[in-house]
Amino acid sequence: MIDCTVVGGGPAGLNATLVLGRARRNVVLVDSDEARNKITDASHGFITRDGVKPAEFRAIAHQEFSQYPTIQTLKDKVVEITKEKNGFLVKTEMKKQWATRKVILATGVKEKFPNIPNLRDFYGTSIFNCPYCDGWEVRDQPLALFGIIDYTLHTAKILRNWSQNLVIFTNGEELTKSQAKEIQKNELRVETSPIRLLIGKEGKLQKIELENGNIIERVGGFVTPELVQASELGTRLGIKLNDTGGHHSDEVGKTKIHGLFVAGEASNVYPAQLIIAAASGAEAAMAVNVELTHEGILGSDK
Ligand SMILES: Cc1cc2nc3c(=O)[nH]c(=O)nc-3n(C[C@H](O)[C@H](O)[C@H](O)COP(=O)(O)OP(=O)(O)OC[C@H]3O[C@@H](n4cnc5c(N)ncnc54)[C@H](O)[C@@H]3O)c2cc1C
Fold first, then answer.
1. What is the CA radius of gyration of the chain?
2. Taking a C-beta distance cutoff of 8 angstroms, is the pair 283, 16 a contact?
3. Ligand 1, from 6, 43, 270: best to mutate by most atoms within 8 Å of Cβ?
4. pLDDT of residue 298
5. How confident is the model over 6-38, as pLDDT tens digits?
6. What residue ranges of the chain have pLDDT lower than 70?
7. CB 3.0–4.6 Å: which of 36, 105, 223, 225 could bond 146 by disulfide?
8. Which residues form the FAD/NAD(P)-binding domain (predicted)?
9. Residue-level pLDDT at 301
């Protein structure tokens, strides 16, 4: 019987695993290595790790695990979690299964992009989704903004501190009266024609070709995709989603199912930041340790 299974090895799952290993808990971290930030060259804003490659961030974490004997890691995908009397039964894609007292779901989110041709060719290299993550890198540059118009307007206002040279592309969507008013008030430039093609080289945006024939030079931009849960494991166990799209839980990630916790973007989709996900993983791990202690379960390396 494993003390805790952590599903997902992004910052939330990694930090949860570290805290549990240091608490002498028998912990298995299962990760399918499909994190959405894999496509970016550098992550920013995590103190002591500013500019780190996502793969390097994970590699450092795994190196740190090696000194804690109760941590096991597995590159695999959890396909089923069944509630049992004293915990859960976990099954993976590679046909492994084990019993576990607690589970932390740290499975993250995935993006649903607006229907813009070849946007993915530039996502993570010159088109980003969070000014706090990549605004500094494109400061004072001519930028494009795409996505759900209300969110884009919000991003545009914040982004002006990084660059004043902004164009909002609605990709054929008409503005509502209030959106048009907001745009006028904030003196923002808008292009409403549908987008024919994004043009650039090796992930670096250069121009945007519109259906009306106009070509607009832009070197990068921001998109506001819809963020949805990457895994259905939580909802299949009966956990409903909250208003942000995360799984319902208390402030430390405890769900209504005894022994099931959520962390990172599986818990709160916003703000989407590595350091916030990592902190939430640490909180969930401490809550797991407290629950195990109250149940009279001692650390497994004793
Ligand atoms: C392009 C881009 C750039 C970004 N840049 C920054 C930045 O500079 N700074 C910053 O702070 N934030 C940045 N972010 C946001 C940051 O990546 C996320 O906020 C953070 O990774 C969320 O952490 P998480 O642990 O909740 O989920 P994730 O990091 O998404 O990790 C979830 C993990 O769970 C695994 N998983 C899912 N389902 C299963 C399953 N069934 N079984 C096993 N494993 C599973 C996935 O493979 C994945 O590895 C960026 C995001 C993107 C998309």
1. 22
2. no
3. 43
4. 83
5. 999 999 999 999 999 999 999 999 999 999 999
6. 300-302
7. 223
8. 3-281
9. 57
Q: If we measure between CA atoms, which residue out of 254, 250, 253 comes closest to residue 265?
A: 253
Alpha carbon of 129 to ligand 1 centroid (Å)? 13
What's the gap in Å between 66 CA and the centre of ligand 1?
22
pLDDT tens, position by position, 150-184: 989 999 999 999 999 999 999 999 999 999 999 99
In Å, how far from its chain's centre is CA 81? 22
pLDDT for 239: 98
Give the Cα separation of 17 and 29 in Å (integer): 7
Q: How far is it, in rounded angstroms, from Cα 90 to Cα 82?
A: 7
Report how far residue 239's alpha carbon sits from residue 254's, in angstroms, rounded to the nearest whole number.
11
Q: How far apart are CA 235 and CA 245, in angstroms?
A: 11
Output the six-digit token pair for 10.
Answer: 């992004």
